[in-house]
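Run log // design_07
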């Protein structure tokens, strides 16, 4: 962390907040894959096991807000810019089952069309 002179600005690449037992519970900064640093920037809330449970993130594809269940993104809300790994553009909401399989989703395309996707659960 560096202090940027007299203007009161502190700069850091990553900030971690720990609980009373020293476990990291909040990360501000690079929250993406450690093998590809700098690709995802945001804020992540971590469970006691260290897994990201909720996040607000920005990457080359756009911005997203996600919630984890059993190690998978169970709910994700975002906007794809049509860049990076995004295959389409627009606002979206995706709901997934416990195994991370998409079950229900909505997307608003650039022309205003609403696309709804529903997948029958596997039994």
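design_07 sequence
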């Amino acid at each position: 962390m560096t202090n940027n002179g007299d203007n009161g600005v502190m700069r850091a690449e990553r900030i971690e907040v720990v609980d009373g037992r020293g476990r990291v519970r909040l990360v501000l900064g690079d929250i993406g894959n450690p093998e590809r640093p700098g690709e995802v920037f945001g804020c992540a809330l971590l469970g006691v096991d260290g897994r990201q449970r909720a996040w607000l993130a920005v990457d080359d594809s756009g911005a997203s807000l996600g919630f984890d269940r059993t190690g998978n993104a169970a709910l994700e809300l975002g906007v794809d810019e049509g860049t990076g790994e995004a295959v389409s553009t627009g606002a979206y909401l995706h709901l997934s089952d416990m195994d991370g399989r998409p079950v229900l989703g909505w997307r608003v395309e650039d022309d205003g069309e609403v696309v709804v996707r529903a997948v029958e659960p596997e039994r």
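Residues 1-49 form one domain.
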